[in-house]
Amino acid sequence: MARTRVYRDGRLKAEDFPLDDISEHLKDPASVVWLDLTDPDKAAYDRVQEEFGLHRLAIEDASSPHERPKLSHYAAHVFFNAYAIGFDKDSGQLEVHEVSAFATDRALITVHAGDFDMDAVVERWDATTELAGHGVAYLTHGLLDLIVDGQFDAVQQLDDALEALEDQVFDESGQAIREVQRRSFTLRKALGRMRKVVMPMRELVNGLMRAREGLVDDEMMPYYHDLYDHVMRVTEFTESLRDFTATLLESNLAVQGNRQNTVMKKVTSWAAIIAVPTAVTGYYGQNLPYPGYDRLSGFVTSSVLIVVLSVGLYFTFKRRDWL
Asked: Which residues cross the membrane (predicted)?
């Protein structure tokens, strides 16, 4: 599937026209073309490469899945790869959508899989038509701005999930303990994956701002500075969550250790209490005469001794919070 648009003098003139008409539109020096390819095959790549003079290595990067976020400069264009992300609060899984783009002086070609919502990007462009006169810089900014905003929303949702998990750390029920362990490792995995796609965005946006091709003009530069500021907020937020996740895991382990120490104190205290009657009955069970041997008074004395010592140990341990 392919979608097309052409802007002329800052105004949208046509859209969803055939790929064969692109060359005619580009003959007008005031025209800027957007071409969007969804799950293109090799024939589509070959056609686009011939039409726009795209570099072979850039085509190879666009057609290869799971490329890292990056910006590459070529003679006739720049190529960048980025990831739109979403966070599922229920499962704790991170949804990742790869987007590649070729930017020439008068065209932007975007490539992505079918799970990426390009309609949201088009809506972002239509909401900022006053910037359409800046051509490719305007289109590129709208695309990256939507991606970065989505990354920030995902980081905020992950932060909310970690805070909710923090409230369960001190729940002593067995089910809560297992849930904290399972959920914490799931969120940590999602955060690690998020960090891989978020951190390189700084170099990507900064490279576009400083590109030798002059993609961003002076009037669009403040918008790219604002975009770069949003990228920095996302990266700093991600780094803080990384520290927060480590602290959460350490706190969970510390709470489990304290809980285990409490259990061990209780078990040891009860063992000491049980050892008293065992010692007394064992002593009186020797085959030797002792005070009260073969008399009722001896039995009463041993029973009273068991009760007194056991109760005394119980209150002693209770006062020391061992029970």
From this structure: 267-284, 296-317
